[in-house]
Design a protein that fits this description.
rod-shaped; cytoplasm; Ubiquinone biosynthesis accessory factor UbiK; ubiquinone biosynthesis; UbiK; 5 helices; coiled coil; about 120 residues
């Protein structure tokens, strides 16, 4: 969050300007400090250190993603060069099995001969 001394300094400046008010400057300063602190909390601010750490993480992640994209492109180029005849759809599609004739279907003529009276 925001360092405590900045909030105190801001509250002190506001208190100095409001000295002519009916309340004591210490009370005004405490009230303003609470208001300012609450406003900063609602803003969900991060410290500069946290921001810098997250920026470093983001830069490393971006460089890793770019390296992986280059690696994938190289692998795709290698695959395309190795199998130029195959289209992407043919390379991804599994082979379609062809039905083989069953041994039971060839016996239809045998069944007809068995049903004939001898």
């Amino acid at each position: 969050m925001v360092p405590q001394d900045r909030i105190s300094r801001l509250a002190q400046q506001l208190g100095d300007r409001l000295q002519n008010a009916s309340q004591a400057p210490e009370d005004i300063q405490k009230g303003v400090q609470q208001v300012v602190r609450g406003a900063f909390d609602r803003l969900e601010l991060v410290s500069r250190e946290d921001f810098d750490i997250l920026m470093d993480v983001l830069q490393r992640t971006r460089s890793r993603v770019e390296a992986l994209e280059r690696q994938v492109a190289n692998l795709e180029a290698t695959v395309e060069a190795a199998a130029p005849a195959a289209t992407p759809m043919e390379a991804e599609a599994p082979p379609v099995p062809t039905p083989e004739p069953d041994a039971d279907t060839d016996t239809d003529t045998d069944t007809d001969q068995k049903n004939k009276p001898a």
